[in-house]
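Box 3.1 A note on notation
Throughout this textbook, protein chains are presented in two layers. The first layer is the amino acid sequence; the second is a token string describing backbone geometry. Keep the layers aligned when reading.
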Amino acid sequence: MKNKLNPAIAAILIGTGWVLIQELIFYFRFGRFNFENFLDLVVFFLAGLISGGILLFVLSKSKDSRQRKGTIIGYLLSLPLTWLLCIIGGLILPPYFGIILFGSVLPLIGVLVGSELTQ
């Protein structure tokens, strides 16, 4: 029997990773961390949680390891543009809506394209 990570825990880990990446980007841009703005942390966690949930759902529907690899690659390739549009989305839309919207839609597209191309 294979040891599998609980999908809920995996999604929480992905959401936490999004918060850490956001903090690193903020640090490299401004020279300090932004842990004092708790709402920002929550919004990026939610965006990561949603995108992680999408990734895990599509992975659970994958037929073989090739399709799983394509799904993960599609997700990873979508992340740089996702992060850029999360920042822009926070400026052109209501901030927290833009971050969650762009943080969810682009990974969804990346996951679906990666999954379909390797089907």
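The helical segments are 7-30, 38-60, 65-92, 95-117. The chain has one domain: 7-117.
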